[in-house]
Amino acid sequence: MDLFLITFAALFSVINPLGSVPIFLGLTQGDPKEAKNKTAFWASVNVFIILVISFFIGKIILNFFGISIDVLRIAGGVVICSSGFGLLSGTFSKRRGVNKKVADDAQQRNDIALTPLAIPMMAGPGSMSLLIAMEQDNPEIINKLLIVAAIFAVAITVFLILRSANYISKLLGASGIVAISRIIGFLVLAIGIQYIINSLLILFKI
Questions:
Q1: Contact by Cβ (8 Å): 190, 28
Q2: Neighbour count for residue 114 (Cβ, 10 Å)
Q3: Which of 115, 133, 138, 116 is nearest to 75 (CA)?
Q4: pTM
Q5: Is-contact 51 131, C-beta < 8 A?
Q6: Integer distance in angstroms from the first to the last C-alpha of the chain?
Q7: Distance between CA 184 and CA 19 in Å, rounded?
Q8: Which residues cross the membrane (predicted)?
Q9: Measured between alpha carbons, how far is 88 from 56 in angstroms, rounded to an integer?
Q10: Domains of the chain, residue spans
Q11: Per residue in 8-44, pLDDT tens?
């Protein structure tokens, strides 16, 4: 159960669905409620599928390119730190590849649930590398099932948050969402730094 909670907390912090609320509202502006709910549903489904695929076949991709898991942990830690700093500085969207041009293009397409909402906003390099490393660290079947369950719980949380985006936006306001995002950003930054430190200790066997 501890592994489930740790995985859920780490993924939720890195994905930060609350930080995606303003972008979700902007991309679905003018859509009826049913369309917004459908977009929220498929965004959460896409997040789940992408993260599960990353979890199970990430090791194969690493082996193909000859990348060690410790190097991946350091690279993932850097990406996670970048996301955390983006949340703290208010440049999260740009760091996730969602600039004005991307947002304008997304509004011309129907499949915004996949990109930019699922990729790169939520299921980005940080969450992918985190799961690939966890797959290596947890070879037991029961642990893998717990991690998949945590991914599923995060996907459900993503759906509930995006589905309630209008209510959350009205309740917290822009300043409230920014404040929460910066608190989460601090936690994400700490996770990334700890990730890098642990990897360096393993590499240099300190």
A1: no
A2: 18
A3: 133
A4: 0.76
A5: yes
A6: 30
A7: 9
A8: 40-62, 74-92, 112-133, 145-163, 183-204
A9: 31
A10: 2-204
A11: 998 998 888 887 887 788 788 778 989 999 999 999 9
